[in-house]
Design goal:
- α1 (6-27) packs parallel to α3.
- The chain is flat, with a radius of gyration of 18 Å.
- By secondary structure, the protein is mainly α.
- Helices cover 74% and strands 0% of the residues.
- It contains 4 helices and no strands.
Length: 99
């Protein structure tokens, strides 16, 4: 396998970002024909995005089942919410690693 240039790596990363966006969009509703064709092409060459699509579908299915079983009164305890908010705040305060 050849070494990829930074530009090629960035292009691949952007394609995967778009693909994951389209995967989620498709799971939550309809996507345009052009988007569907772009996604199908990307999935035909990218194993990582295929794995993401399968995992995302599984997570969505379990979430739907959970809420349809009458357990829609799920609540996070306050301690967990505070800890999570602290982690988010710390991540947002970190400088970006973009080159």
């Amino acid at each position: 396998m050849k070494n990829l240039s930074d530009q090629e790596k960035a292009g691949m990363l952007n394609n995967c970002r778009k693909a994951t966006f389209l995967i989620e969009k498709r799971q939550n509703g309809k996507i345009a024909l052009k988007e569907r064709l772009e996604l199908e092409y990307h999935l035909s060459i990218c194993e990582m995005c295929n794995t993401f699509m399968k995992q995302s579908a599984t997570i969505n299915e379990y979430t739907k089942r959970l809420f349809h079983l009458g357990k829609n009164e799920l609540k996070l305890d306050d301690g967990f919410k505070e800890k999570l908010q602290k982690q988010i705040d710390e991540k947002l305060d970190q400088p970006s690693n973009k080159g």
